[in-house]
Amino acid sequence: MPKKSLEILTESMFYVLMALSAGPKCGADTAEFIRRKTEGRMRLGPATLYAILAKFEKEQYIEELYAEGRKRTYQITGLGTRAYREEIQRLERCLTDARSEGGFPQ
Question: Closest Cα to residue 27, out of 38, 16, 37?
Fold first, then answer.
C-alpha cells in the first residue's frame, strides 16, 4: 500500500515546520532559524528549502502571508501544525522503543 504524501517528514521538512511554528518567516529567515537551532549541523540550501516550501504550500501545510518583490513570507496552517505535532509524537515513540531495548543511554 502506498504511503500518504508527507506521512513521515524528512529531517529538513521537520525543521521547516518547527521554524514556521515559531512564527511567520521568509525563506532566508527559515534557513537561519534552522542553522541556529541545529548549531550549524543542518544548513538548507535554497533549492532544498524552496522545494520544501512549495510542497508544503501545495499540501496546505503553510500559506503565503505576504510578498514583497521576490521575498515571500509564510505561516504555518492548522494542517501544518497537526502534521508537526504528529511527527513529534512519532519521533517520541521511536525514542521510547529505543529506550525499552536498552539502545538509548539514559
Answer: 16
pLDDT by residue, tens only, the chain of 106 residues: 334 567 789 999 999 999 999 999 999 999 999 999 999 999 999 999 999 999 999 999 999 999 999 899 999 999 999 999 999 999 999 989 988 888 656 5
Residues 73, 25: contact at Cβ < 8 Å?
A: yes
CA atoms within 13 A on the CB side of 30: 29
**SS3 of 4, please?**
coil
This prediction's pTM:
0.88
| Residue 26 DSSP code | E
Cα–Cα separations (whole angstroms), residue 93 to 1, 6, 63, 74, 105 = 23, 18, 29, 30, 16
Strand blocks (E) in the chain: 25-26, 62-68, 71-76
Which of 16, 11, 48 minimizes the C-alpha distance to 32? 16
